[in-house]
Amino acid sequence: MSARLGVVSVVQAMIYDLRSRIFDGEIPPGTPLGEVDMAAHYGVARPTAKAALENLVASGLLTRNAHQSARVTVLDSADARDIYQTRAIIEAEAVRLLASTGHVPQAAHEANAQITALADASPAQIIEPDLKFHAALVNALDSARTSAIYAQLSDEIRLCMTHVQDATLLSTENIAAEHQRLLDQINSRDAQGAASTLADHLGRASKKLEAHLDLIQQNGK
Amino acid sequence: MSARLGVVSVVQAMIYDLRSRIFDGEIPPGTPLGEVDMAAHYGVARPTAKAALENLVASGLLTRNAHQSARVTVLDSADARDIYQTRAIIEAEAVRLLASTGHVPQAAHEANAQITALADASPAQIIEPDLKFHAALVNALDSARTSAIYAQLSDEIRLCMTHVQDATLLSTENIAAEHQRLLDQINSRDAQGAASTLADHLGRASKKLEAHLDLIQQNGK
DNA sequence: AGGTCAATATTGTCTAACAAGTACACATGC
DNA sequence: GCATGTGTACTTGTTAGACAATATTGACCT
C-alpha cells in the first residue's frame, strides 16, 4: 500500500523531509532536534526518529555528542575551507580526466545554460544549477562510488549555503563565464589549464564563503 | 565506568568486532548476518544489533535488500575497478598537491620501510603497511573530510583483499620500489611524473585484482 | 562570587509484541 | 515432467513502554 516512488520506509521518509527542511532554511543551523520531539512531530516511535537522526548525523547534516540532543550542524570558516578543499581535489582530477579525452558532459552544458538564463533572478536560485553543473563533471567519470562521495559532499555544500542565505557570493555572469571557460578547456584537451581554472574558481568561492562565515560568527558572538 | 578507550557504546563495540571479523576473513563474503542471530551471538537486543548492521550496510561492508538478511558484501571485478578508480582520483590529486610543495610525508616513508622489511613474509602481511602508505599520502593533505572519505574507501579496499586472501598480487620488492619512486618524484616536485607513476601503480594492481575476481566468480559458478 | 550538589531532561538500551514483506517448498493442474 | 499458484515460515519494520546512565542546569551553600 505504500507508495513505490520516493518513500519506502518511515525512516527514509523522515530523513527526506528533514533534509528538505534543513536545506530550505526552515530549520536553521544550531537548532536542537530531540528524539522525543521529532517522534512527536512526525507521529512515529522514538526508535524510528532515532534511526533517522542517526542517519543525518552520519551524513554530517546533524551533529551530536553522547547524551545530548542532535543539532543542525553549525559550520565555521574552517569547515568551509575543508569542504571546498575536498571538493577541489575530486573535481580537479575529474576535469583532468575529462580533458584527457576532450569529452564535455552534456549535463554540464545544460546546467550552465540554466545559470545563464537566471541572470537577474535572486541569488539563491543559482545554487541548485551551480551544484548540478559541478556534479555533472564528477558524474561524467561514470564511477558509482565517486559520484556517491560527491553527492554526500554536495549535502555539506548545500548546508554551507543555508548559513549565508541571502548574500550574493559571486555574480551570475562571472560564474557562468568561468564555467564556460572550463568546458572550453576540457574540449580543447587542456588538462592543466582546466585544472587551474577550476582551482581558481573554487578557491575564489571558498575565500568569499570563509570571510562571510567569519563575519557571521563574530556578529553572533 | 565504561572504558574511555575504544568503545563507548554497545553498538560501536559490535561494529568494531564485526569489522574485525570480516577483515580477518572469519566471516567470508556472502555470509548472511541476521539481526536475531547477531543479537543472540553478542547477547544484545535486536534493535541494538539492527543499529550495528545498518551502520555496516551504510559503510558498504554489508549489503541488504528490504526484508532480507544483511550479507557480507560480495565484490565483483566491476566493483574492484570502481573502487580503484575512485581511490586513483583522490590519490592522484593528493600526490600532485604534495609534489607542488615537494613535501614528502614522514608517515609514508615509515610505511614503505615496513614493506621493505617484510620482504619474505607472507603476502597477506603486506596489505596493512601498503594501506598505511597510501593513507599517509592522503592524510598529508591535512583535510579532515578527505581523510574520512579515504578511510571509508580503505574499508572497501580491505574487503577486496579478503576475496583474494592468499594470492600474491604483486611482489613485495616491486611495490616498495614503485612507492619509493613516487616519493622521489614528489620530493623533486615532478607533479606530472608522480601522478603518472601512481596511475600506473594503481592501474596494474586493479587489473590483477579484477582478473582474480573474475576467476573466482567463474569457479564459484 | 564561586564551587558543590541535586534535580531534570535526554539519550542508550532492553523487553515484548505485532505488522508486513519475501523466499521457499509444497501441492496442484496441465 | 514441468510450470504455476498458494501457503507457510522466516526475516525485517515498527511500535510501545520501561529502566539505566549521563550531561546540563539551576539552586544552594560557603
TrEMBL record, chains A, B:
InterPro entries given in the database record: GntR_C, TF_FadR/GntR_C, Tscrpt_reg_HTH_GntR, WH-like_DNA-bd_sf, WH_DNA-bd_sf
Gene3D superfamilies per the UniProt record, alphabetical: GntR ligand-binding domain-like, Winged helix-like DNA-binding domain superfamily/Winged helix DNA-binding domain
Keyword DNA-binding: yes
Protein name per UniProt: GntR family transcriptional regulator
SUPFAM superfamilies, sorted: GntR ligand-binding domain-like, Winged helix' DNA-binding domain
Coiled-coil region: none
Matches recorded under SMART domains: FCD (SM00895), HTH_GNTR (SM00345)
